[in-house]
Amino acid sequence: MSQKPSLPQGTRDFGPEVVRKRQYILNTIRTVFERFGFQPLETPAMENLDTLMGKYGEEGDKLIFKILNNGLDRPEKEASARAAFEKVLGGKSTKDLTERALRYDLTIPFARYVAMNHGSLTFPFRRYQVQPVWRADRPQKGRYREFYQCDADVVGSRSLMNEVDLCSIYHTVFIQLGLKGYELRINSRKLLAALAEISGGAEKMMDITIAIDKLDKIGLDKVKEELAGRGLNEAQIATIQRYLEIGGSNEEKLVAIKELFGDNETAKKGIEEIEFVGNMVTGEGVNLVLDFTLARGLNYYTGIIFEVKAPAEVKIGSIGGGGRYDDLTGLFGVPDMPGVGISFGVDRIYDVLEELRLFPEALTQSTRALFFNLGDAESRVAYGLLQELRMAGTSGELYHEASRMDKQFKYAEKKHIPYAVIIGSREVSEKTALVKELTTGKQTSVPFEDLAGFLKS
Amino acid sequence: MSQKPSLPQGTRDFGPEVVRKRQYILNTIRTVFERFGFQPLETPAMENLDTLMGKYGEEGDKLIFKILNNGLDRPEKEASARAAFEKVLGGKSTKDLTERALRYDLTIPFARYVAMNHGSLTFPFRRYQVQPVWRADRPQKGRYREFYQCDADVVGSRSLMNEVDLCSIYHTVFIQLGLKGYELRINSRKLLAALAEISGGAEKMMDITIAIDKLDKIGLDKVKEELAGRGLNEAQIATIQRYLEIGGSNEEKLVAIKELFGDNETAKKGIEEIEFVGNMVTGEGVNLVLDFTLARGLNYYTGIIFEVKAPAEVKIGSIGGGGRYDDLTGLFGVPDMPGVGISFGVDRIYDVLEELRLFPEALTQSTRALFFNLGDAESRVAYGLLQELRMAGTSGELYHEASRMDKQFKYAEKKHIPYAVIIGSREVSEKTALVKELTTGKQTSVPFEDLAGFLKS
């Protein structure tokens, strides 16, 4: 009995061309990470449910994909499974039904790894991780249930040099990808804390941060409404508005922010951080923009925060972000592990490169030369030459059977193969291959011994 | 509240050195696949449960990790969830509780992909796929619940040239990995079919195959016992024994097998296949061994089958295998899709390379140069030079803070960094860095403008 197959909602197959383009992005990023002394980590797709639950808020918990325990149908397990199922219906999970789940991000698995291995790691520990994560979000355009995250973090150090290095990583990657018009925006959470201090009291910090985080999406008026809804009065909101409206060049912004905050100690620290990073991150094409309206939703950031905007000609949100946090591993029993990390939005970077046509042409070529199959005797000779070609590092195929020439040409065309190598009985006796460049139609007779050199890319 | 974190049974974290070694293996294989004109495919970790169930036998179905549907705690879902749960207790799965599962291998997802996209693919379609799979097997030494599979298949062609190409891929990969003593064993399922014909009747083919498949593990006497248990009589078993005892060089084996089978038509076809592949796969270091006892358990193979044995000095089973099948996609409603595929056992290849010390030395080095941090002013100069180094393609780090020298040396040592670059106030004024080679202790003064060249790997 046959079935019409389909894919789970929100998941994707990546065919050859897409894999190549994604690999191009990921390899570029990986190479830069390595060049900055970051080391690769891979963690399992499955984590114990305990490790994940309660780390992403109530909404997050619901979006974690849980794995059904195996062997529930064994009679001796029935009673415990029944009891467990009642708990699930009541909105709770339990080990008797599900004790494992798919990772939801790369940060918690990283924290777990550091907590389990902190005795043997060299600190500061610079790790990068490029793996898929899974979320039971409602699928919609640009939002998937399986997607790659691509993170770099330095833990075990409070030095701002780490922030500087992460900014340089962003710059190096985007320049290598050809994305000249990117903008790297930075702010410090300490300025938001200072804003809370001078406007509404420190305990309003997260309220203010959450409201400001929506500025791009909903605009200033709605942010003010939201602040009012969160209990801030007019005078307080006016201060926040003054803060949000600071503009101009980076230098002008620094003058204005110093004036706004005056002697506030928290603000001074934040400004110092920003100035340190701003002064160190220099070089051709670096585009660091101070953006005091940058807030980032997550509540664990405590210092510098980052966000990368795609070049203005592409209408797409941020293509990267991150920041400093004070405590990576406390939840796993290892205190005092500060760090700073960034992340690349691979799916969006893909869309940006596609829209701006920045993928290298060569990525659509797979095989460089198709050796035509003109019969068993000829293809035995052709195959020997093909193997030499491959050993020399050039990709090639022999057509699988002695079909009509037009069929073989069609195959080359469909696979975007640039060269046809034709070896018939005459070519065998003359020890010379006929090489046809398929885009131009140009034909060249190439002696067998020169063939590998001729076709080398 | 803190918790002591742990990993799910049968799963592994891969730290930096292990990831680098694994990537070395996978990149070597990927590069060879590409050179042979194979194209990459990636499918989602989750498949619809329908797609997977019933494809791996009853035992396999039980080992599939099923994913609990989300939102089961919503009141309106309670009734259907309860009904579904009763079915699970009865050993059945149902969409109301679980409709997705983690992929169990790469073959069924590939078949699903081909069935869904056969209208737009170019055939013969040569694809490779390197992704993890998950099985709820009992964990034991060398057997994991998450592990990588690494497959290459050609579908849509019956040509034996595909078998030839796959043999060449094995050879090229193992030579590149330095595994000179590998053995590529081949056989044809047609010879096993012929053996069934001349000994016990064609319908005993799978019984005979399954028994022969155990020869390596249990020995000839136990295989004969098993054959007797499966209803074969003494004369039949004697024929099978004659078949199994064929030995000598490849040429001697061919003489003996022809003699054994005489005019049997099925055997003639099998021998023709083997001779064709054997005659085409030649070249320095190729080690193709005819092995008529090779059976391979899976019942979908119909022609040539492969198995790769690690060099004899390593006691480990096969490190690769595959074969020809007639029908990849029939179960998904697309008939007539023959193909042939191979697979690399990545975990075992890792163990073999480790045991024979074949991993390149360079894999344990991450960062090439550590720039010492001797204060803010000095490290600003050092950071500029470090950035030049990185842009030139060499990896480097600046120590994160101005700690004592011995602490910075210790960090370099722990990370196996070969060069220390020391830039103090004197070096800044003289525009010359002091470069210390850490294994030998040799020191060199290098002018700033020559530093990137000096440290280039």
What does this molecule look like?
- Two copies of one chain form a homodimer.
- Helices cover 42% and strands 18% of the residues of chain A.
- The first copy, chain A, has 17 helices and 16 strands.
- Chain A has helices at residues 16-35, 49-52, 57-63, 78-89, 107-117, 161-176, 189-199, 205-213, 215-229, 234-244, 250-261, 265-280, 346-355, 376-391, 405-414, 425-430, 451-455, and strands spanning 39-40, 46-48, 66-67, 100-102, 125-134, 146-155, 183-188, 288-290, 301-309, 318-325, 339-344, 369-371, 396-398, 419-422, 432-437, 443-447.
- In chain A, the strands form three sheets. In chain A, strands 1-5-6-11-10-9-7-8 form an eight-stranded mixed β-sheet. Chain A has a five-stranded mixed β-sheet with strand order 13-12-14-15-16. Chain A has a three-stranded antiparallel β-sheet with strand order 2-4-3.
- In chain A, helix 14 links the parallel strand 12 (369-371) and strand 13.
- In chain A, helix 7 (189-199) runs antiparallel to helix 12.
- Chain A is globular and about 90 Å long.
- The mean pLDDT of chain A is 92.
- Chains A and B meet through helix 1, strand 1, strand 2, strand 3 and helix 4 of A and helix 1, strand 1, strand 2, strand 3 and helix 4 of B.
